[in-house]
Amino acid sequence: xxxxxxxxxxxxxxxxxxxxxxxxxxxxxxxxxxxxxxxxxxxxxxxxxxxxxxxxxxxxxxxxxxxxxxxxxxxxxxxxxxxxxxxxxxxxxxxxxxxxxxxxxxxxxxxxxxxxxxxxxxxxxxxxxxxxxxxxxxxxxxxxxxxxxxxxxxxxxxxxxxxxxxxxxxxxxxxxxxxxxxxxxxxxxxxxxxxxxxxxxxxxxxxxxxxxxxxxxxxxxxxxxxxxxxxxxx
Length: 234
Ligand code: SF4
Description:
Blueprint: H1 28-51, H2 56-68, H3 77-94, H4 109-134, H5 140-153, H6 159-188, E1 205-208, H7 213-223, E2 229-232
Parallel strand pairs: 1-2
Bound molecules: iron/sulfur cluster (SF4).
């Protein structure tokens, strides 16, 4: 039996899956903790849908929990453990019964692929929704799909049902991208091409990847006048 299984990004080993250690450096214990967190999120979403318990607190847990498990966002085992405890506490508050852990990567190949397509899509949407929310923009349909999608990931479906779910989710995901676009353009203006220096300056620097414009804005404010250069591709 392999030490881990992760195939959620294009760097995945051999184009099929990281099974010893992640190409990105993710360790097996981190991968297991991330999977455990996803299973807790599925239980929380399922209990919340069954009880129609949609709250900002639960939405925040689902959104940030999914974002935490995205590709190489967070490899801090203790932080993942603590987040999982918070999710389990929320499950306890809803009085949801214990259930078997969802076997995320087991089953018939097509089923695993379809389940993963929905799960990875939800992780991506959670990241965008998180960035939009940080700028004060939310969308009810996007939020509800965090519940609906996670619950669906934990259930059995026919291929046709999976495809229908994924297509419907794709429309919500597009809505989330529009939401983030609106959040970014209304907060920072409409992007347009400008000339930027591409040389490397002497002195301390920070390299930023990703596209969280609010984080980048805060970092630029914090480093302003301090002689620390910020480089980014975005
Ligand atoms: S996130 Fe890391 S461990 Fe997972 S597939 Fe990508 S490279 Fe491999």
